[in-house]
Structure formats: C-alpha cells, structure tokens
Amino acid sequence: MSENDLAPMQRTQRFGLLQRRALWGYVFLIPTVTILLVFRIIPMISAAYLSLTNYDLFTPPKFAGLINYIDLAKDPVFHQAARTSFLYVVGSVIPVWIISLLLAMLILKAIRFGGLFRTLIFIPVVMSAVVVAVLWRFLYFHEGMVNSLLGYFSIQAVPWLTTPRTALISIILIGIWRASPYFMVIFTAGLQAIPEEFYEAGRIDGTNAWSEFWYITLPTLRPIVLLVIVMSVVVALKVFAVPQLMTNGGPAGATEVIPLHIYKTAFEFFKMGRASAMSIFLFLVMMIFSVIQVRIFSEAGK
Amino acid sequence: MSYTHRNKIIRATFQQTYVYILLLLAAACALVPIIWLVLSSFKTMEDMFRVPMHWLPKPFYFQAYPNAWAQRDFARYFLNSAIIAISITVGNIVICSMAGYALAKFRFWARQFFFLAILSTLMLPLEVTMVPLFLIIKVFRWQNTFAGIIIPFIADAFGVFLMRQYILDLPDDLIEAARIDGMPEFSIFFKIIMPLSKPAIIALSIFVFREAWDLYIWPLIIITTESIRPITVGIALFMSNYGTDWNQLLAISTIAMLPMVIIFVILQRYFVQGIVLSGLKG
Fold first, then answer.
1. Helix axis angle, B126-140 to A272-300, nearest 10°
2. Would you list the DSSP string of A137-185?
3. What confidence tier does A115 reach under pLDDT thresholds 50, 70, 90?
4. Which of A22, A130, A275 sits opposite B235 (nearest CB)?
5. What does CATH list as the number for A71-300?
6. Ranked by mean pLDDT, which of A68-82, A219-233, B81-95, B218-232 comes out on top?
7. In contact, B36 and B59? CB cutoff 8 Å
8. B59: preceding bond cis by omega (within 30 degrees)
9. CA–CA dist A12, B250 (Å, integer)
C-alpha cells in the first residue's frame, strides 16, 4: 500500500506517529547533549571570554582586551612551553608510528604466539599514568635499572632527569613506551583488513618484500595511517601526569609542556585569564588535528 | 625435497627467527620495567640500590606492603577510585547508548547536526577546558564532592560514536515488531537494544573504566579532602611526601596497577575490540 492509498484520517495519524517517534529521538539525546553542553561547550565558550579578562579567582573579572594574548606572544616562558610541547610531539610520535607499525607487522608475521606477544606488549598501556611516573622515576635513578643495564654494555651512566636535555628525552622515551602498543593494535586490525588478493596480485608481478610494503601495504593502509598520525599527536599534546610527577616541568623548564604550564598558571599563580588564553591556543592547535579526526569518523559513520 | 624448496624453507625459518627475536625484544622492553617494579617492591631499602644490580630480592621482604598501607588511608583511596570509575562507566553505558540509539535508529530534524556537534566535543579534552570547567564546578559548589568528579564525565562523544556505529547494524524489524506489540520506547531501549549491543557495551566499559580509573589532573584540581581522594592522587601525594621510602611507594604502585592488569588479561579480547572500534569501525 502506497502513501496515496491511505485515507486522509489515516495519513494524519501516521504523520503524528512519525512525529512522536522523532520526539523520542530527542528524548534519548537529552542526557548526552546536556552533559556535553554544560561540561564541554559552555566551558570552552567561557574560556574564550575569560582569556579576554584579567580574572584571578579572587576579584571579579575585568575586561582586558587582547592583553593576555599579547603577553603570551612576548612571554619567553610560554615560548619555551610551546617549544617543549612541539619537541615532545615530534620526538615521540615519529618513533611511535614506526615502532607500532613494525610491531603490528611482526605480530602478523609470526606463525605462532602472535596473540600472546600482542597481549604481553600491550600491558604498559593499561597502567595508569601515575604508576608509570613512579615506575620510571625509579628506573631513571643514577643507580637505577636503566643505567645498570647500560653499564652491562659499558655505557656511561646517564643523568636522566637532572639535566635539561636528557630530562626531555627521558619523558619522550616514556611516551613512546606507553603509546606504541596502543597504536600497534590499531595497525594490526588495519593490516588484517587488507585482502589477501592484493598481495597475490603483487606476487604475480614479482614484487619483493620491500616493494610489497611500499606499493601495496602502505597505500591500502592510508586511512589508518592518517588516523594514527592524528590520534598520536593529540595524545602527545595532552601529556601531563608524567612530566608533572617526574620533574614538575624542570630542570629549568625543560619538560614543562603546555598542559602543565596551563595548570601551574591557573592553580599555582591563579592567573585564570592568562591560563585561559593558553587553553585557547592549545585548543586551536588540537583543533587542526581533531578536525581531521572528526572528518575520518564522520566519513566512517556514513 | 628439491633444492629450491629446501632453500625456501631455510629462508622462511630464518625470517621467523628474526621475527621472534624482535618480538622478544619488544616484549622485554614492555615488561622488564614492570617486572623490575614488582620485584623491587619486595626488596629492603639497602637491597634496592645495591650495585651491581640484581633481580631477585635477597631476602624477600614483605613488610613494605603493610607499612605503606598504614601510612595513609589507601583503602579509602581505592574505594573512592572504584566508586568514581564504576559510576562513570555505568553513566557512559546508559547515556551514550541512548544517544547512539537515537542517532542510529530515529529520524528527526537536525540529526546530522547533533551527530557532528557531539563528535566535535572530541576536540575539547580536559587539558583544554580545565580552567573554565573548574570555575563551573565552583559555581555548582561541587568541589570536594563525588558529583564534581563524576558528572562531567558520565557522557562522552567517543562512547556515543562507538554505540551509534554498533546499533546502526542492528535489524530494524525487531524494533518495529516490539512497537507493534505496544512495547514502550524505554523498554525497547533497555530490553532489546541494550542486550543486543552487549559486545559494544563491554568494549566501551573497559575503555571508560580505564580512563576513569586513571583520572588524575581533574581530581587534583577539585579535590582537597582525604575522604574523596582517588588512588592516583593518593600515590602522587605519597610520592612527594615520602619520596625516599621507595619500597613502600613501589608496593602501593603494584597494588594500584593490579586491577587494570587483571581486567585486561581477562577481557583483553574486548579491550582490543574497543580500540579497533575507536579507530576503524566504519
């Protein structure tokens, strides 16, 4: 029976039914929309507003125009935080991409025990950041495990957390240790989704392992590579607990990444306006990457 | 066996050997630090930093565990962490499934807008919103309350996305049949949609539970009283105050690590599925 065959009465009834059903759609959406509105979107809007004020938590905010942003542009401490975050992101994500893809390929290549290795290698991911910070502070001691292991190879003890350059490298190594197994799992699933025929076609053409990787694996994996790039950058931009607990940003600010700098500005110096301006900056940087992620997600959702 | 065939087998074996050497190396990098942590928690302070390094505690010293446990109210911290993590997980299961169901199975005006708006909040992690979120919690007078830690996180875009993707594939006929039988909409959701979405719900639960158990920066900002402090902040404070009693610190860390490792080992299939769904499921 088509739409036109319905009597007018029935048609209005049907229309009412559809409307009522649509109403239920909204009902089911209300809790999520409320939470996200109150605790994500309104905070973001108020951050934008506060960044234009001199709010200090104790006296009412006064409008200050772009002063906070101009100060940030001139502030060497903020520049250092931005540079530190940049170095952290670049220094951690590139090794993470390579290691996680390599691990995924190794796990699929192994004829037996691939699943067991995946489980074992994944365990650092389930540890909480605070425990990771305790653990690595312990390992990085002068007489700690890392230096002792280096000693086996007659490598001199490294002052891991106590000089500016080595401290940042130490934090980056932890980031790689925590993130690689996570993306390994995503890559494993991506690699498994590549149809075997792709490789068979390649074999007929007589490809070797390297060109197989370069001309078949990587191009087919492109959306997943893109996703891993975006997610790993966002994860790296958010790092907070590990630098806070291991060095509290030191020595000499060498590990004070942007989230940690925001935290200190807001909750140790109570410069809420200024901290909000930094939050907006961090937001804009993340947005560039997240827009790509949302696009991937919503394309997947079609 | 022909010569070339044997060659092939030898080459494959060699390849497999390299694969396993590299995998063993990776597993060692992942696990040796953790094993070292657990072993060291059974060492005495003198034994711990003795040079040259040695693996097994000599003698096995169990006292660090009760000593550490007595230093602070760690039982309370664990209980708090459990309350926080379980509430956030349950909240996400119900609320995100509802939204996922709405976006997957209902047609209404501006549905695509809501979907994109929800997804776009992925761009607003706590690290970005902590200052204004703190101010909002202050307005609600939710500092030092469970509500303050829990409620901002009982719904999240990731969960909505995951549930929507899963519910999208559920058959419409079931829902229609239930409606024709006169089943109320809420019953359809709780009695049909939720049970059918079990795999996605388990994956989501593990994901959310891990993140909630891990919450650190947020309670650090809004909690100052002992009685609501979660274990993450408890350990952090313990580290800064008792920074020298390393075997106690390691003992507490070992205990704190256990729940997640156990959950992971038991439910790892779903864990992996959750990660894959978060990244791939299209």
1. 120
2. HHHTSTTSHHHHHHHHTTPPPP-TTTSHHHHHHHHHHHHHHHHHHHHHH
3. confident
4. A130
5. 1.10.3720.10
6. B81-95
7. no
8. yes
9. 70
**ipTM of this complex prediction, to 2 decimal places:** 0.87
SS3 A53: strand
A165, two tokens: 């350059």
Q: Give the tokens for residue B106.
A: 């209902």
The shortest C-alpha distance from A139 to chain B (Å) reads 7
SS3 A63: strand
Tokens 């005495």: give the residue: B44
Nearest CA in chain A to B26: A121
Give per-residue pLDDT as tens, B102-151: 999 998 888 999 998 998 888 888 888 888 899 899 889 999 999 999 99
A157 touches B: beta carbon within 8 Å? no
A35 closest CB neighbour out of B154, B221, B256: B154
Under an 8 A CB cutoff, do A135 and B37 touch? yes
**Do A123 and B34 lie within an 8 Å CB cutoff?**
yes
- Judge whether A175 and B266 are in contact, CB under 8 Å: no
Break chain A into its structural domains and give their ranges.
3-50, 71-300
Tell me the CATH class for B67-279: mainly alpha
**Interface with B, mutate which of A297, A298, A299, A302 (most B CBs under 10 A):** A297
Per-residue pLDDT tens digits for A201-238: 777 776 677 788 888 888 888 888 888 888 899 889 99
Q: Looking at beta carbons, which residues of chain B come within 8 Å of A301?
A: 115, 161, 164-165, 282
Q: Which of B14, B16, B101, B128 to mutate to test the interface with A (most CBs of A within 10 A)?
A: B128
SS3 content of chain A, % helix, strand, coil (to 5): 75, 0, 25
Residues 6 or more apart in contact with residue A119 via CB below 8 angstroms: B265, B268
Cis ω before B52 (30° cut-off from 0): yes
Tokens of A70: 């101009």
Question: Model confidence at A3, in pLDDT bands (50, 70, 90)?
Answer: very low
d(CA B124, CA A263): 16
What is residue B108's three-state secondary structure?
Answer: coil
User: Cα distance from B1 to chain A (closest Cα, Å)?
Assistant: 22
